[in-house]
Amino acid sequence: MQAVRHHPPGGTEKLRIAWEDIPEIDDDEVLVKVHAASVIWMELYWDIYRKEDGTYKTPILGEDYSGVIAKVGSKVPNDSGLQVGTEVMAFMSKAFPTKRSIDGGMAGYAKAQFSHMVPKPRSLSLIDSASVPLSALTAWQGLFDHWNLSAGQTLLVTGAAGPTSIWAVQLGKMVGARVIGTASSEESFKLLKSFGVDEVLNYKEVKLDSVLENVDVVFDTVGGDTSRQALKTLSKDGKLIYLVGQPPDDIAKDPRVDFFIVDMNAEQLAKIADSIDEGKLKPVIDSVFDFNDVVKAFEKGETGHSHGKILLKAPNV
Ligand SMILES: NC(=O)c1ccc[n+]([C@@H]2O[C@H](COP(=O)([O-])OP(=O)(O)OC[C@H]3O[C@@H](n4cnc5c(N)ncnc54)[C@H](OP(=O)(O)O)[C@@H]3O)[C@@H](O)[C@H]2O)c1
Asked: Which atom of ligand 1 is nearest to the CA of 158?
């Protein structure tokens, strides 16, 4: 099979398409013939691939992907709903170390422990299903595990048209919260209005703390000065869910700041799939690239102005 391997340190110049063997699975694992993987452009710069001796692992990129099950290990439970031929979406959450392979979905085939995948939403294409797991779970866990978002609360989403934030916007509207989003481009404004966002603020023109107050919760995918402004808009019991990485000291010292890293949760991902099938949530795809255009796909992400998710098709899809 073909696979996209990254050879850190470095950016897109260190991406290589290699020919290699299809992975062998353990008893509790599932092999998926991949259709598409989502592009996480920040993955090129993650610390997790640095080894103690200063050298780097060279992973197959991609944490979440979609495809068709090609092989099921003997200890995968029958009631998991996973059989040869099942169309699935998977998320391997590489940030949480295990002894398993850190190779991801940008390849002809990928394997994962069975609890890291669920049947894809019936109403979505296989390719579009690759856009769901990591981004939708991040928004779900931020708003419902790290906060208890409910009707009538005010939710501020920064970088609201981005691949992760657009799910927070939709979850906010789904539960009846008042949703305020920040963005800068006409395309972003249109997208946010189409999801019924109550107020869109152009972050290039206004300071958040000069126009907002008493916000209950901020879903923050931007960081830096945006977080500092957003903290001033929060109510005293509010929370700023900080996604960008470990916050700098001046932000971290505010007890209302909560940083977390998304993890796979099959039950939550299945609920997200149901909500998509019920028409309550909808993935937003910025663009879909052919496998051989992997460098272009990551370069698109690195612009920092994608509207929804960037996807990479598997080889020969
Ligand atoms: N902790 C976790 O588990 C977790 C999970 C997922 C993502 N993340 C992190 O979340 C961050 C966002 O990643 P992403 O891939 O979702 O989005 P992204 O591609 O980095 O962001 C794209 C969006 O950000 C907007 N934007 C750019 N600069 C902005 C600014 N100064 N203020 C407000 N909006 C701005 C753009 O809107 P316009 O084009 O309209 O300007 C665009 O829609 C990354 O740091 C990523 O590592 C963390």
From this structure: 33
